[in-house]
Amino acid sequence: MTPAQLGVRAGQTAPEWQETAREEDKRMRNGELNKRVNTFDVDAIRNDFPILKQCVHGRPLVYLDNAATTQKPQEVIDAIVRYYTETNANIHRGVHLLSEKATKEHEDARKIVKRFLNASSTQEIVFVRGCTEAINLVADSWGSENLGPGDEILVSNMEHHSNIVPWQLLCQRTGAVLKVIPIDDAGDLLMDEYQKLLGPRTKIVSVVHLSNALGTINPVREITRLAHEAGARVLIDGAQSVPHIPVDVQDIGCDFFAFSGHKIYGPTGIGVLYGKRELLEAMRPYQGGGDMISSVTFEETTYNALPYKFEAGTPNIEGAIALGTAIEYVERIGLEAIAAHERDVLEYGAQRLLETPGVTLIGTSRHKASILSFVLEGVHPHDVGTILDQEGVAIRTGHHCVQPVMKRYGIPATARVSLACYNTRGEIDALVAGLKKVVEIFS
Known about the structure:
17 helices; seven-stranded mixed beta sheet; Aspartate Aminotransferase, domain 1; alpha/beta; Aspartate Aminotransferase, domain 2; about 15% strand; about 45% helix
């Protein structure tokens, strides 16, 4: 199949997911949420992000690469600066005032994350470097103890490399087998095929919540239910979902959930692994060293209580504190209000892109958010991104660390627009104006 057969091209009618988005938006505009959406002030929000005030190549910055990393509000930047100017000390080990203050702020951040995900306990919240480390932790500490030759791991065809490679490494160590849930042309999981893959040898299902390349929102609650009925555990990669849609791990029912701080307006180098307490209790440590121990002799080491058993060494203290600040920032705006605003910009963006000759949208699920991936006929995505950069428009081009997705659609790469709460319709107009220049150059 060609990209034209798999996507939605310029001049065609709006994809079904846009109609669904309109219907959902009407429903969401009722009641209390309507009041919150109506008070959504994108200009005030943009003013919170100092980096958005700059110019690039003499033009106002239009930042549409949020799936790679989001920009940071001033209060998150201030939280990092404040830690280093007022509180800097190591945690959990000191009896002096600065250490006690740093420890409290670090553990307060854990409480914020626990509330944000609706975990049942802070013991279920492990701070890691990011979503990638969280998945590797589960694959190593849980997988190595629970999988053997012939056991099966299910992932989907839309997974990020970070949710493929750790499981491949586990298969190499244990003799387990990796199986793939296929997707259809719109970018939706084939749930009938998923159910067929589930069996008595299935030990864990690890799927993305929101695809970084297609924007598809997967039915993680149903995925989890079916996996549990088959006796399997479930890990959800929430790196892309947490900035855009509410997450309730108890409602989803998943066994593990992972996300990165820098995707939700927090700093890099900090992330979270949620794990059900009974599973974390049974898992062996991922790394050894300070703070993950209770006592050490040359003969034997006993491990610390949860979650510290998985937090060896001095942690990213200021990163955790700033992540807490970022989450509170998002909560103050309201994820429902953010979702409604982003849905409006996403729908408008799809309409404007389809006005551009030669554009094919890749990923047209009826259930999607935040992502518009496309190809432009006769132009390599890297050339698209380079020319747009000269117009001050930052997008991502390439395979987006999802090479199996590119193979599924028969293309080497896409140009990807990814949205955040501070993006506007006007920025979409700037994007489309830039694309028209691309078309002129290559025509």
